[in-house]
Amino acid sequence: MPYLSGKEMVKELRRALSNPNIQSDRLRYRNTVLKVIRAMSQGVDVSDLFSEMVKACATVDVVQKKLVYVFLCCYAHLNPELSLLVVNTLRKDCLDPNPMVRSLALRSMTNLRLSSLVEYVEQPLTAGLRDRAACVRRVAVLGWAKLHNLQPGSEIDGAVVNELYSLLRDPDPVVMVNCLRALEEVLKDEGGVVINKPITHHLLNRLKECDTWGQSEVLRVLQRYQPQSEDELFDILSLLDSSLVSPHPPVMAATLSLFLSLCSGLPAVSQAALERVRGPLLAACGSGSREMRFTALCHIQLLLRSIPGLLGEHYKRFFCSYAEPAYIKRRKMQVLVELVNDENVIMILDELKGYCTDVNTDTAQAAISAIGRIGRSYSDKCLEILTGLLGLKQDQITSAVVQTIRDLVWACPQCSDAVSSALEGCEEVLQDSQGRQALLWLLGAYGERISSAPYTLEAFIDGVRSETSMELKMELLTSTMRLFLCRPAETQDMLGRLLHYCIEEERDMCVRGQALLYYRLLQRGIGETRNVLQVRRSDPSIGVLIGRQAEPISQWVSSFNTLEPLQHCSVERLGGPAGLPAPGAEPSVTLSLSPPVTPEEFECLWMQQRDTIRCGAVPHCSPQSLHAAMQLVNIQTLAFTPSHTLPWKVFLYTHTLRADTSCSTLVLGELLYEVKVTLWQQPHDVSSLRVFLSVLTTVLHTLSSEVTIFQVGPELFA
Amino acid sequence: MSASAIFVLDLKGKVLICRNYKGDVDMAEIDHFMPLLMQHEEEGLLSPVLSHGNVHFMWIKHSNLYLVATTNKNSNASLVYSFLYKIVEVFTEYFKELEEESIQDNFVVVYELLDELMDFGFPQTTESKILQEYITQEGAKLEVAKSKVPTTVTNAVSWRSEGIKYKKNEVFIDVIESINVLVNANGSVMSSDIVGSIKLKTMLSGMPELRLGLNDRVLFALTGRDKGKTVVMEDVKFHQCVRLSRFESDRTISFIPPDGESELMSYRINTHVKPLIWIESVIEKFSHSRVEIMVKAKGQFKKQSVANNVEVRVPVPSDADSPKFKTSTGSAKYVPEKNMVVWTIKSFPGGKEFLMRAHFGLPSVENDEAEGKPPITVKFEIPYFTVSGIQVRYMKIIEKSGYQALPWVRYITQSGGRVATLLIVFSNIRNSSLPIYINCHTL
Fold first, then answer.
1. Measured between alpha carbons, how far is B249 from B234 in angstroms, rounded to an integer?
2. Which one, of A572, A608, A596, lies nearest residue A654 by Cα?
3. What are the φ and ψ backbone dihedral angles of B185, each rounded to 5 degrees?
4. pLDDT above 50 for B171
5. What top-level class would CATH report for the domain A589-703?
């Protein structure tokens, strides 16, 4: 009936459904019901037909029954009173000799999701648990979970729980797994199903009978088990070895997750398990489905955080193919960057170079910045590629390259010579403001070595009137100032023009403010200006600790084999709502290192603002021992000044996580030898900061014999 | 696991069919899916997980459909994706083609299937052979099926029903291998692997017990024999009917087969194979006037073997026109909608070499957009030949009634399902303003 509008169609259908002639003819009746369902799935609102459909479910025709139940489950929540009428038919169906009908009726009854029906459903569900047919028991077991989900917090009958526990021994593996699922749901408040020794051994023995879904479920639940002895642990591990190399990625991942949580105290065993799982992991990365490949890659990234050398020799598996979607290519490049070592660096760079000219600009940019990251350890080779790319004169590539070079030079100042010769002529190609900003920064920083720098800046200054980006104007001001300091003769005139424009004509307050600042600075004399502008932004004596420390596996094991690793930066914690903190209780705060903070991010955040806490004395000890001690309490030391310099400085960071509100904060800190501790925290949370300080004090106490007392400034904790 | 609901959407994001399993996520949330997808695609941040508030959409695309699972928990992503692919597999078995029309035409079956596949967000029965016994596609078939309890519901062998009868008992074994080779621009092979599968078509009565013997190196080492050619298989995957415990202990592949067609096992072999058909090409592009392409294909396999249905696909610029071809054998055709020339050779004997020349005109006004540089791909099939040298040594069939049955074995090698081999030799490229087909390896 395509020519009828929705309303007319409903009217027509109602007439047909209540027509006694149609009702008496089974096929015609069924076809009419079919039309209703078709209209429903086409998006027509057929909820008005509810009462007619309720009548239609009293039939012996199983096909019609199925259809009507689909309809009822969809619209029951709109008509709770009328739904009561269905219950009788459903209960009758629960006694049908055909097990298919029984299971259908039970499932539909629990899918109506009406709390008013709970009292009628309990009896058939109890009977269903003892049904002869496995398919009915499967439905009945999950039915209890649905019932509990409908009324969260309600008391569940102890007898039912006992029965569910006893059904774990059901001959049908699906019933067994469904029991686990149901118990997890029903006993959610008590921490889920009890995993004791007999249950664990029973589940392990029957693992092989289950399908992949069941196996994953069982393995997940078993993570809560604590083996009583080391012998038992190793028995379990040997038993699960075949699942560990399972060809099904979900089973493999679930087993690995179980291994890692069981062996949390035995790093050597975890390491062995990871070595063993290498093959299946690589196979999952080559899986036919792109989503599975993506999932595998995300999990490999997680693994590499703890075991960086795991896949070094298999880097070729992470080369991108032409037809892969951009999200896979991006992840593969991120993995490749982690895998670089002396042997494979040339091959990897060669491959990445190929991606830099990809048609997809995002992929090309990702490849260029990947080369930049590799450049921190292999700067010569990478700079050669990057400068080669500038020769293509393509605006997007050039922009990405210039930005990458800026970041690279910041981390490795030694490569500035090669850079300064490569930059000539870039300004003509660059289009976007990000790239031009990066170029301006480089011109300001290395202007004395780039002969054309003043001319390039002049072109920018001449065009400043038509410039819209505020950031670019600020960058231009700074660069011109810096260039003025090293090449005054060529720059003086244009600096004057720029300052005049920015102070007199510019409408943006920030730019005006900055220009005024520079103007007044110049009035104070050239020496003063030089002091402010030509000092390097970071302390030159600070070297970034090369390479990131391997994280302990416990940092990420809880999120392994879940959705979390797939998301870019999951700021909000996934999972259920946390309970309110008990009044008066001291919140329990834990420190953690994830997500890691790179030296650049640290620097960026550090520049924003910070509070200073005066303290007594910080002991002076060797960087290695301090680093190791801090690592133990989950505080990461990021950089040290050389040990003979005074004042001796240490930069560190950590994340605090409050168990009660599950809100986490990031704490950055600077320890100054014998003077003070400077802290930066975001978001502000005094109590977790206090915990952090007490941890820090304890560490420092243990490190030195002399007693150190922190005097916490009142302004911070007020 | 816990998917809250499953949706099937068309390309515009309209819900074709949906099933709410848990009721903990508002069904209207799906309206955010398509705008999110478009927005992320535009920003180049597309990923298989999209999130709106605390609702996560995990999606896959199949022909002109999106299959989406919603959840508000931190659920097991790999399991959800495997489940979505399982849905595709089951639906495809029912409707031959899974696409918008087949969903609309069969929505009753789809509802039925969705009902059986999952309950309360947990996968239930997903083996399509067994599902067929629960589902009744047509009313007429229904009465027959419903009158008796499906045997597999209580059966120990869940993938095979009892009481199957055939007049002539036969089993066909197909060994199909496809090769993927990665060749870089200098012509050296970067990596190569073989993906093989053994497919069965079983027409056997009763509950037969089958044993398959392969020339597997591990097995030969176990039994101490060391003669003839053997192969080392990696990543072996079996159909659930194979007794894994026996394979683990003594490498015997023993099983009760599902009736009809099924894939018994698949494997991967990571060895160095040379490309079976070697392609060399010279592409000369004269900007604003013409492109000249010369492709040479050489069969690098045994002289006795013949490759069938060879298709060499050579990409050409999208603005090319007026094609002219000359081939030493086979026929070439321009496929403008895919921007490629397809050179088809019906049969290609080993050791032979063939040539194809193509000439295209180019418009005087050049297309500004940078074009991708897709590789040349080759598709082919070589019967009675496996690259790895895998062999079925025996197939034993044991059944209570003791009937005689015949096993038939067939070997086929194909080019990789995903992409095959290629090599491009540069010479004489005069206009290099647009880099032509540099990035030639691909997998």
1. 17
2. A596
3. -65, -20
4. yes
5. alpha beta
| Longest CA span, chain A | 104
**Residue-level pLDDT at A88:** 85
Q: Can you tell me the distance from the alpha carbon of A244 to that of A252, in angstroms, rounded to the nearest whole number? A: 5
Partner residues linked to B193 by β-bridges: B180
Interchain contact, A135 vs B191, CB within 8 Å: no
Residue A631 or B99, more confident: B99
ipTM of the complex: 0.76
Whether the predicted pLDDT of B416 surpasses 70: no
Q: Please tell me the distance from the alpha carbon of residue A389 to that of residue A257, in angstroms, as a whole number.
A: 43
CATH code, residues B170-273+387-420: 2.60.40.1170
Of A63, A211, A319, the CB nearest to B139: A63
Residue of B nearest to A106 (CA): B119
- Closest to A139 measured CA to CA, from A169, A181, A89, A96: A181
* CA distances, A624 to each of A144, A406, A697 (Å): 57, 31, 18
Q: What is the pTM of this model?
A: 0.69
CB A410 within 8 A of CB A395: no
* A85-121 confidence digits (pLDDT tens): 888 888 888 898 888 889 889 999 888 888 888 888 8
Contact (CB, 8 A) for B429 and B284: yes
Candidates B48, B108, B443; nearest CB to A321:
B443
Residues 366-405 of B with CB under 8 A from A: 370-375
Q: Which residues of A touch B15 (CB under 8 A)?
A: 43
- Residue A677 forms beta bridges with which residues? A613, A671
Report the residue from A37, A208, A289 with minimal CB separation from B108.
A37
Asked if B47 has any chain A CB less than 8 Å from its own CB, the reply is yes
Q: Where in chain B is the domain with CATH 2.60.40.1170?
A: 170-273+387-420, 277-383
Q: Does domain B277-383 have CATH number 3.50.50.60?
A: no
Distance CA B24, CA B3 (A): 10
Cβ(A367)–Cβ(A333) below 8 Å: yes
In chain B, which among 320-349 make CB contacts under 8 A with chain A?
none
DSSP string, A529-573: HHHHHSS-SS-TTPEEPSSPPPPPGGGTGGGTTSSGGGSS---SP
Architecture of the domain delimited by B5-132:
2-Layer Sandwich (3.30)
Q: What is the four-CA torsion angle of A598, A602, A603, A605, rounded to 10 degrees?
A: 140
Rounded to the nearest angstrom, the minimum Cα separation between B47 and chain A is 6
Say if B188 is an interface residue toward chain A (CB within 8 Å): no
Assigned token pair, A94: 């629960």
Residue B154, pLDDT > 50, answer no
> How many contacts, defined by CB atoms under 8 Å, are there between A and B?
200
CA distance B127 to chain A (A): 9
* Contacts with B149 from chain A: Cβ below 8 Å: 98-100, 133
**Residues facing B211 on adjacent strands:** B254, B396
User: Directed axis angle between helix A80-93 and helix A99-111, to 10°?
Assistant: 160
Contact across the interface for A294 and B268, Cβ inside 8 Å: no
pLDDT category of residue A644 using cuts at 50, 70 and 90: low
State whether B82 and A316 contact (CB < 8 Å): no
Say yes or no for a CB contact (<8 Å) between B76 and A30: no
Residue type, B306: V
CATH topology of domain A6-229: Leucine-rich Repeat Variant (1.25.10)
- Alpha-carbon span B169 to B310, nearest angstrom: 35
- The burial of A70, by beta-carbon neighbours within 10 Å (0-12 exposed, 13-18 middle, 19 or more buried), is given as buried
Q: Which of B78, B102, B143, B197 to mutate to test the interface with A (most CBs of A within 10 A)?
A: B78
Q: Does B46 touch chain A (CB under 8 A)?
A: yes
Contact A54, A85 (CB under 8 A): yes
